[in-house]
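Hi D.,

Good news: the full-assembly prediction came through. Inputs first.
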Amino acid sequence: MRGSLPGFRDLYPEDCALRRHIVETFLDVLGRFSFEEYDGPLLEPLELFTDKSGPEIAEQLFQFEDRGGRKVALRPEMTPTLARMAGARAQTLRRPIRWCAVGEQFRYERPQKGRLRSFLQLNGDILGEPGFRADGELMGALLSVLSALGLGPADISLRLSDRKLWGLLLGHFPCDGAAVLRAIDRYGKEPAAATEERLRKAMEPPAGQFLAAWEQLRACNSLAALEAFFQKFPSPELESRLAEWADLLQFLTDLGLAEFVTVDLSIVRGLAYYTGFVFEVFERSGEGRALAGGGRYDDLTEKLAAVPLPACGFAIGDVVLSNILREKNLFAGGRSAPDLWLFWDRDRQSAALALAAAARRAGSRVAYDLRNDLPDRQLRRADRSGARFALFPDGGGWLLKNLLTGETFFTLLENFPSLWTRVGGLA
Ligand code: HAM
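Then the structure:
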C-alpha cells in the first residue's frame, strides 16, 4: 500500500492531541494579548505570492491552473493574504489591528527534519502601528506562547536583527543589496565558502572590505558590540536607529523576556517584504531549523491594497515546535480515557443510553460496548479503556463504581446526574 505524499503527514490521535495543545495554548495566550482570530482562503491567486513573498517562496509554490483557467497557488504563508484583508478594511478597523491565525501552509521544499511540504503555522500580526513598541509587543506574545508551552530561555533564543541597520551598512558598499541579503540568509544553511561566493558576486569588486566587516558583524551578540561596530559608519540615521534598538530591548526587558533575546545580524529573513526589525527563534543548542520567524513589513499593504499600513508579525511552525516538545517531554498526552464506562444488556438498552446521554450532556466522556457481550468481556474492555468510573445495572437501579478506589454508589436513573456531579465524574 502506498503512503502519503512526500512531506505530507498522517496525523494519528496522539499527534492531533499535541497539535490541539499547541493551537489552544497559542489562541489562549494571544487572546491575553488582545489578539482576534481571522482566516483566509487556502487557495489564492498565484501572483499574490510571486510578487510579494520573494523568489525563494515563489520557487516553492504548489501552483496550477484551475478549471476556469486561473493561475492559483496553495498558500505558502499568511502574510500577503492578511495584508490584503486588513488593507481592504483599513478605513474602518480600529488601530492597532491585532490579528492572529492558525492554518495549514504548503511549500514544495525538500522534506527533511523540521521541514515538510504541508505544515501548520500560528501567525500573530500587529498592523497600523509604526513604533518599536508594536515590535516588542509582538515578540512578547511570541515568547509568551513558547514559555506557556514549557520552553524557557535555557531552551530557546530569539535572534534579533534589523533590515534597517543592514540598509545603513550596505549604503557604504556598492552592491546589489537584495542579493547580499539573500546570500546572508543562506549563511549557516550551506558551507561558508558558498555564502562567501554569493557575497562576492553581489558586491562590486573588490569585496574584501565588506567580507571583513561581515565577519566582525557576525561576532556582535549584544547592543554594545553593535554600537562599537557601527562607530565606523556614523550618521544621524544610524544614531536614531541604535536608540530604537535600546528602547526595544528595554521594552522586552520590562516584559520579563530579556533572557530569551540574542543580538544576531546574520538573521535577515528569506522573505522579500521585511523593512525593519526581523527575528527568528531557534533552539539554544543551535541545531535544527527555526521554529518561528517574523519582523516588520511596513510597505506590503500599500503594495497590495494601496493603503499605507505599517505592520509587523510572526509565524510559529508546528513541525520543529512539536519535535522539541516531544524531545523535551513537555507534553504529557491528551485525555483519551473515558470518564465513565457503561455496562448494559439488551433489556436495559433504553435506560443505559439515557444515562449515557445525560453524562455526555454534562460534558463527560462516555464509552460502552457496541457488542452487547458477556459481562466479563465488557469488564475486560472497561479495564483496558482506563475509565475512572463504571456503571452496572443493579436490580431496579444502577451501581456506580469508582474504578480507582473501588467505592460504589447505588442510584436510580433519575438521580444519576446529581450523583455524577457529587462524585466528581466531570473532573
Ligand atoms: P517563515 O520564516 O517563512 O515566515 O515561516 C515561519 C515558520 O514556519 C518557520 O520558522 C518554520 O517554523 C515554519 N516553516 C516554514 N517553512 C516550513 C516548512 N517547509 N516545513 C515546516 N515548517 C516550516 C513566514 O512565513 C512569515 N509569513 C511570518 C510572518 C508573519 N511575518 C510577518 N507576519
